[in-house]
What we know:
The complex is a heterodimer.
Chain A: H1 2-17, H2 33-43, H3 46-71, H4 76-91, H5 94-111, H6 120-145, H7 149-157, H8 162-192, H9 204-215, H10 218-251
Chain B: E1 4-15, E2 18-29, E3 33-37, H1 44-51, E4 59-64, E5 67-68, H2 73-79, E6 83-86, H3 98-109, H4 114-127, H5 143-155, E7 161-165, H6 173-188, E8 193-196, H7 200-206, E9 209-214, E10 217-222, H8 224-229, H9 234-244
Parallel strand pairs in B: 3-8, 3-9, 6-7, 7-8
Antiparallel strand pairs in B: 1-2, 1-4, 4-5, 9-10
Helix pairs in contact in B: 3-4, 3-5, 4-5, 5-6
The complex binds adenosine-5'-triphosphate and magnesium ion.
Adenosine-5'-triphosphate (ATP) binds near residues 20, 38, 41, 43 and 45 of chain B.
Amino acid sequence: MKKFFVPLMLLVLLSGCSASGNWGWYVIDPRTNGGWTNIKFLISGMGSTILISVIAATISIVLGLIVALPGQSGNRWLRLINRIYVEFVRSIPLLPMLFWVFYGLPIVFKSMGFNIPIDPFWGAIITLAISDSAFTAEIYRSGIQSIARGQSEAAQTIGLNYYQTMRYVILPQAVRRILPPLANQFIYIVKMSAFASVIGMQELTRRANELVVTEYRPLEIYSLLIVEYLVLVLIISAGVRWLERKMGADERV
Amino acid sequence: MVETAIELVDVNKWFGDFHVLKDINLKVGAGEKVVICGPSGSGKSTVVRCINKLEAHQSGTIHLYGAELTNDPRSVASIQGEIGMVFQQFNLFPHLSVLDNLTLGPMKARDLTRSEAEERARHYLTRVRIPDQAAKMPKQLSGGQQQRVAIARSLCMEPKALLFDEPTSALDPEMISEVLDVMEELAQDGMTMIVVTHEMGFARKVADQMVFMDEGEIVEHGTPEDFFGDPKTARCQKFLSQILQH
Ligand SMILES: Nc1ncnc2c1ncn2[C@@H]1O[C@H](COP(=O)(O)OP(=O)(O)OP(=O)(O)O)[C@@H](O)[C@H]1O
Ligand SMILES: [Mg+2]
């Protein structure tokens, strides 16, 4: 799919450049001053998109592990807490959660006596991280469960406790099965970060929206926006494939 | 009078509605060797797994050197490492070298320093006759070697008793004897052992007690002489004739 999409987009862009009446590719034509300024304006959101995604993914990776571990314990109450968190978080659509965090959470804080404002940057990160952590927790779960039960039993018979068994026996083996899907999950975060535009975060989508309002050229500008995400995601996918190859290669030693 | 190492009294266990263990009674003196045999699904693994608390039992008592083993997490924690276990599938840690497989328990659960743990590991690797494989990864070893590493890993915890669940069943025939030889030596050195196995030659040589299980019950229980010479029940006779055929 992706392979066909790139040339297709280029075709659309090029055909537009050939000055037929209804197209307005001039708004993002790098040869003109105005077009170049617009392009720079649009691309300048890239930094925020990447930064939000990276921070949210990092938090989600840690949070996901904290959520996943109780799910593996022998204690059924801990397992229940894990299930409730995962099912609950997984079922909230991102946009309502974003509104709740951005507009609602400061009120909760205030009622508890804290005056913690939430800016669009952290509002977006908190929402993305929490929303994603339910998925990373499930990735950890399947990774941990893919390690045969005999491994934790052997660890138990040489006196390791639950934490030590996880730390020295299960997680080191699970990591190579967990890393590729975790990296894949990063793509999800990058795409979902577009929602941050609605609370005023100056990232790729927000920039495009603002330019559309002044230039009245939605087709051309949103086309470029899609290409921007496409390039980002293609780069990440290449990274994931490289990681998968590396992990697979290790397996064969 | 020999001290009692392990004692099971009227132990019962269910998996849901399924009654896997029915009134199991077993008394193992310190240094004694017990061999358990019986058809597939008779509950042999479940017995040894209850003894080291990999499984919970629902009624009856299990004592280790006079201390009762309950299903309470603290009781379970207190015996971890005290009773060694050798699994059919070895269950070595594939991401760790042979040496690290052996030192992990002593260092993390017994607070030995690395050099103490390594010294102990090399000592037991020598005992299982693979002193020169310490740096290898488990999958670089043959099945017989892997199982001997697993035995050494258990020994590194200096356990009060060692349980074996069909330790040679996953091995190619030519490797079975190298593992049995090591187990025989351990037996001679006075280790308390409970061995689930169908290796009747080994049983004749080392067993003090023979246990035959079927459908969750101990059907026959006695000295190897009585057991092999004069099996009482038809079930046991049939089992023995099948197993001794090849
Ligand atoms: N976790 C479990 N849940 C439900 N049933 C189980 C479980 N583990 C074992 N069983 C059942 O309990 C019975 C006894 O199992 P066990 O493994 O103790 O038999 P075994 O004598 O060791 O057999 P084998 O020679 O095949 O190893 C079997 O019927 C088995 O299917
Ligand atoms: Mg078994």
